[in-house]
C-alpha cells in the first residue's frame, strides 16, 4: 500500500513550520510522498536536505494553491480506484474505520491519499473523500492526527523502518549518539 499526503490550505510563511512538520511526520511514518497545495519550494528543498542527511526517498511536490489544482489531484486519485481519507475532528473515530481502510488496501490493492488542512477546509473535501476520519472529536493538531493515522494504518511497523542515510542515530538510554557514515566516526555530543 502506498500512502500520499495532500496538504491543503498552506499559507506561505505563516504555515511553513507546521507544513514542514506534516512532511517530516509523513516521511518518518511511512508515506511515500506529499502533494503540497502551494508553490512554497522551501518545503521541497527542506525535505531534500533531510533525505540527503538521514536517507529515504520521500518527496514533496508543489501543485499550486488553487482549489481546482488540489481538487483535480483528489479526483484523479479516486478515478484510479484509490481511497481518499480526510483527517478532521468532525469525522468518524479512527479506531472505528481504520481496519476497513486497511482491508480495502490489502484486499483490493488500493492506495491511500490522506488530506490534511491548514486553515478551514472547504466543504467539497468532506464530500469527495471516501472517509472523513477523526483521531478524536476535539480540536487537535494536523501533525498529531497524521502521525496517529499512519501509525494505525501501518500497525506500528513503520517505526522500525531503517533509513539508509549519511547520518544514523544509535539508540541510547541517555545522551545522544549519532554516526556520520561519511566520516565513519561517532559524535557523542549532547
From TrEMBL:
UniProt cross-references to Pfam families, sorted A to Z: Trm56 (PF01994)
Keywords tagged on the record: Cytoplasm, Methyltransferase, S-adenosyl-L-methionine, Transferase, tRNA processing
CDD domains hit by this protein: aTrm56-like
Compartment annotation: Cytoplasm
Domain of life of the source: Archaea
GO process terms (BP): tRNA nucleoside ribose methylation
GO molecular-function terms, A-Z: tRNA (cytidine(56)-2'-O)-methyltransferase activity
Reactions accelerated catalytically: cytidine(56) in tRNA + S-adenosyl-L-methionine = 2'-O-methylcytidine(56) in tRNA + S-adenosyl-L-homocysteine + H(+)
Binding residues for S-adenosyl-L-methionine: 87, 117-121, 135-142
GO CC terms in record: cytoplasm
SUPFAM superfamilies for the chain: alpha/beta knot
EC primary class: transferase
Signal peptide annotation: none
Main location as per UniProt: cytoplasm
EC annotation from Swiss-Prot or TrEMBL: 2.1.1.206
Subunit and partners: Homodimer.
Reported function: Specifically catalyzes the AdoMet-dependent 2'-O-ribose methylation of cytidine at position 56 in tRNAs.
NCBIfam families per UniProt: PRK03958.1
Annotated PANTHER family: TRNA (CYTIDINE(56)-2'-O)-METHYLTRANSFERASE (PTHR42197)
The family this protein is said to belong to: Belongs to the aTrm56 family.
Designated name of the protein: tRNA (cytidine(56)-2'-O)-methyltransferase
Amino acid at each position: 500500500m502506498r500512502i500520499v499526503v495532500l496538504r491543503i490550505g498552506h499559507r506561505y510563511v505563516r504555515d511553513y513550520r507546521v507544513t514542514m512538520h506534516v512532511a517530516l511526520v509523513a516521511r518518518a511514518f511511512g508515506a511515500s510522498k506529499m502533494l503540497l497545495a502551494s508553490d512554497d519550494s522551501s518545503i521541497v528543498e527542506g525535505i531534500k536536505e533531510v533525505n540527503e542527511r538521514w536517507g529515504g526517498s520521500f518527496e514533496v511536490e508543489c501543485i499550486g494553491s488553487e482549489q481546482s489544482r488540489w481538487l483535480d489531484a483528489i479526483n484523479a486519485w479516486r478515478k484510479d480506484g484509490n481511497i481518499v481519507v480526510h483527517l478532521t475532528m468532525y469525522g468518524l473515530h479512527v479506531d472505528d474505520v481504520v481496519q476497513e481502510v486497511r482491508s480495502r488496501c490489502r484486499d483490493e490493492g488500493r492506495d491511500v491519499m490522506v488530506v490534511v488542512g491548514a486553515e478551514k477546509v472547504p466543504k467539497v473535501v468532506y464530500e469527495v473523500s471516501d472517509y472523513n476520519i477523526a483521531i478524536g472529536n476535539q480540536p487537535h493538531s494536523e501533525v498529531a492526527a497524521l502521525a496517529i493515522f499512519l501509525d494505525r494504518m501501518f500497525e506500528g511497523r513503520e517505526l522500525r523502518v531503517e533509513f539508509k542515510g549519511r547520518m544514523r542515530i544509535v539508540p541510547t538510554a541517555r545522551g545522544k549518539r549519532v554516526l556520520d557514515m561519511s566520516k565513519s566516526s561517532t559524535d557523542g555530543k549532547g
